[in-house]
Model the fold of this input.
Amino acid sequence: MKTWGLLALAAGLAVASSADAAEKLRVGKAVPEAFSFTPVEIGIRTGIFPKNNLDIESIAFAGDARMQQAAAADSIDILLGSGPAMAFIAKGAPIKGVAAMAGPPLLLAIVVRPDGPKTAADLKGKKVSVSTAGSLTYWLVSETSRRQGWGPNGIDIAPMGAMPGQIAALKRGDIDGAIMDIGNAFDLEKRKEGRVLVRFQEIRDFHIHVIFATDKAIATRPEAVRGFLKGWFETIDFMRKNKAETVRLAMQVTNKDEDITSRVYDEIMPMFSDTGRFDAAALETLRKSYVELKLLPSEPDMSKLYTEAFLPK
Done:
């Protein structure tokens, strides 16, 4: 019934959209297949973004740094990135945070081979891959090292770009571990090719993901930015209320089977924000991390890195 209802809704929206041409927004995702970025495709396929008069183009990247380059080149308008990526703004990136997308880093895990390190304490001096330097994954591996008492550099962090290459390197033994989204982690465990070693549930005061808009989009198309956030949070509400349909649609993006996608849904949905409001304690965690990781020479004024002016009322 729900599927037929959605098809009817989509058909009605298609007719309505003929009267007013939808405004195109180019939306960048820091990585291609993570469940946390599937609301873009789900919002498109359920007709939620079209209902808000938006034609969304979803563009995936291999990490925050490359997505930032695209923003600087005016190749995207909206960025779905990480909390640590707010440091790019202090370095002069032409973007601003417009919504706190998700809180604790429930999406990610450090995975090792089945015969690899047994505990986090065994990671000292070991090589663990991340997407790019200064990324969310980089921060979490460094934070794991710091929490073990080794400082931020007790683990040998290896930026390696896209996840397929990291998984191949893990299987070959070129690295000792890889930090990846929990969907890939569950998939490797299911195939007995990997084992989850570290989760990050204890990191509570945090923004794993932030939605950014480019300065140009904010200045020239504020209503489109506002419309995107409205559609995003309507999509999150739909996902909370419709697990089966969400899993079905997410499978098409993440390329994981129903069993794994259902498990990921249960793990990940609690971290999504329903309001987009920024949390003071989470911002403080991020502010301190930028200096600890040598991303910035001093702690920035976080109030200059984001705005809540475009959030739904």
